[in-house]
Amino acid sequence: MSITHGDRAADVAPASGGIDPRGPRFGAALTAVLLVLAVVLGPGAGTTVLAVVVASFALGAVHGAQGTWQGWLFKRLVQPRLAPPAEREDPRPPRFAQAVGLVITGAGLLLTVLGLDWALPVFGVLALVAAVLNAVAGFCLGCEIYLLLARFRGARS
Amino acid sequence: MDLPARVALLLAALAVAAALWSLRQRGSGRVRAVDAGTTLPSAWTPRDGADLTLVQISSRYCSSCARSARVWTAAVADRPGVGFVEVDAEDHLDVVRGLGVLTTPTTLIVDAAGALAGRVSGAPSPRQAAEALDQPIGAAR
Predict the structure, then answer these.
(1) Is-cis flag, bond preceding B105, omega within 30?
(2) Suppose A102 and one of A57, A139, B61, B65 were both cysteines; which one would form an S-S bond, judging by CB atoms 3.0 to 4.6 Å apart?
(3) Residues 111..140 of B with a Cβ closer than 8 Å to A: which?
(4) What is the pTM of this model?
(5) Going by C-beta distance under 8 Å and a sequence separation of 6 or more, which residues neighbour residue A64?
(6) Could you tell me if the ipTM is greater than 0.90?
């Protein structure tokens, strides 16, 4: 019957166009492979691989998941071989998730460089879990964190 | 941490994530019973004499809220007396905390008296949406 957009959620609706939701998932799969490599190689060579992941998340946090090298590969190599997506997606949630990924892997990289060798596997595995859930199930862990942060922020004020 | 320990940590974390994921999926899209005593904002209670109102709590960064809203919108379209409202969690943090909403979308089913009749976590499938709407209406009559 009646369909009302109560309030600000109205502008949560995807802007015209939107991105192919399979793009961020493909990117997350590549990120997951790099993170497995970083954790298995360990401090040293793995630190360099983690730095690549951090740089990729930094790109994604600024330009969105479609603005990373993974997004570029998807657009050039994968998307042309796929049927058009059934639905398009608001680019802002994946971009926020990239920023969350940047914070987690960035913290891991910083602590590793400072000599705390446990930080690489711990933060690497944390980011890996998020990337795998995203790639396999399309689940956006970073997006879930947003609501929890909002709840916490609201509780303090 | 040596290599076997790192690999063990990796595998253990993935196993835990898979277990939590399957638990979450089991409940996703299904109606759960709720404490009926909860007071909702007056803006959420049924309008225009609706029998039932769905209130979807969305948030700014939510990958499945748009899909969820589309499914509910399609489901209420052929059900006179059922309304759909989408609200932003950040505008109603007291309610979100009071009801223990931890994820978006969470959809509240509000009956004609303005009482909470059930809630659904996650985006429902079209079939789950139909079941959710037919069940409480049927029970009320």
Answers:
(1) yes
(2) A57
(3) none
(4) 0.85
(5) A19, A71, A91, A92, A94, A95, A98
(6) no
